[in-house]
Automatic annotation (TrEMBL):
Keyword Transcription: no
Lineage: Bacteria, Pseudomonadati, Pseudomonadota, Alphaproteobacteria, Rhodobacterales
Database matches in PANTHER family: CARBOXYPEPTIDASE 1, METAL-DEPENDENT CARBOXYPEPTIDASE
GO molecular function: metal ion binding; metallocarboxypeptidase activity
Family of the protein in this entry: Belongs to the peptidase M32 family.
Catalysis: reaction(s): Release of a C-terminal amino acid with broad specificity, except for -Pro
Pfam families assigned: Peptidase_M32 (PF02074)
Function: Broad specificity carboxypetidase that releases amino acids sequentially from the C-terminus, including neutral, aromatic, polar and basic residues.
Cofactor(s) annotated in UniProt: Zn(2+)
Listed name of the protein: Metal-dependent carboxypeptidase
Record keywords: Carboxypeptidase, Hydrolase, Metal-binding, Metalloprotease, Protease, Zinc
Binding site for Zn(2+): H254, H258, E284
Amino acid sequence: MTAYDELMQFQRETEALGQIAGRLGWDQETMMPQGATPQRAEEHGAMANILHARRIDPRVGDWLQTAEALDDVAAANLRHIKRDFERTAKVPATLAAELAKTTSLAHRVWAQARADEDVAAFLPILQKVVALRREEASAVAGNADPYDALLDDYESGATGASLGAMFAALRPRLVALRSAILDQPAPQTLSGDFDEVAQLALSEKLALAFGYDVGHGRIDKAVHPFSSGSGLDVRITTRTSLTDPFNCFYSTIHEVGHAAYEQGIDAAHLLTPLGRGVSMGVHESQSRIYENQLGRSRAFTGWLYGQMRDQFGDFGIADEDAFYATVNRVSDGFIRTEADEVQYNLHVLLRFDLERALMSGDLAVNDLEAAWNDRFAADFGYAIDKPSNGVLQDVHWSEGLFGYFPTYTLGNVYAGCLHVALRDAVPGLDDDLAQGDTSKATGWLRENLQQFGGLRTPVETIAHATVAVPDEGPLLDYLEDKFRGIYGL
């Protein structure tokens, strides 16, 4: 075998072990008994040790020096492996294992603290997570910005400065649109209770409508919905609320967007670096365009209205137009994952600024709750009422995912660009969406983006699909056009 063949054989085993590690995380969120936490933390640490050792195996360095890229696929595989090798080599194995173990423990501490509304119970282990991630970021960054090193884990090529500039361009128009909308009468809300079993049944129907392959996936419940896995085993979770079925339905559609990306990647890339989504920003572009531009469109909500009437009977909304306004209702709220399209990115920008301050040392962990509450009041005009609606609402920091939050807004920006290209490529799309048929839209995304997995860089991936360099303009134009129409502005 050539050096490239030997390297890829070794890499396939590493990728397979990474999938197993991911399955441990899925099980922890969905099936694992509460008392298993200490043992699972040890298991996560052991897997992290194994994966770290494989990623810096001296043979990988030797193979990289002699392997030849005979085509674009080989060149992309080598690029990913080299980046991972060089990055991992900078992080001591003991630190990688300690991070895995600590974040596994922190997740359970966070979940209990959230349930108990007890920030103080979470802060000591968060302090440890922050310290470990700072240590890792410093090791990787060298003389560069440590936060950029964390960002690079999720969005290769992005920097705090570049995202900060993009977010600064987003903020004024978002704030102005929000202000104009909230001066108008609000659409109706749903009334009554919605049976959980019926919600989950319609949730599965929505997953199938958006192309989720349940032959190679599962739908389970979790406190914080997520998607995991790739290739032939891709799993999603959702959640239910007795009075808010949209929470279930749109969480499902969102996670199906992530899952469809993984399931849509060319099977030839299975268990290779190209066999998974190229970045979290690109991943989020798929979940957001599925959930918002398609799932919350006037055409698709008209179909969903009929499905809900069949499932639940009369729920207080008179017709499809009123239902479309209800689905897209802009209103005050604390929870990022439940936020409307207009305000969602303001939630993300808050987190982006706070975590940059945490990583730089400008903000102490013990001051995080006060900083969160002050920023929220400034941005949204009202006070946080309890920690689970504030600093304890998101799982990410307990898992050490610093640098992850900004990819949510970047995904919205990418989705805005993709939506323009999709509408140009598929005229008459609304006729299909009105019948609950998303196949032309999801097919276009699979053909132009999803199938390539990690073949290109994140920005190149979006530019290939849209034939344009991504920027925030299309997202802002879409939001203003949509919500000015709904609210008669």
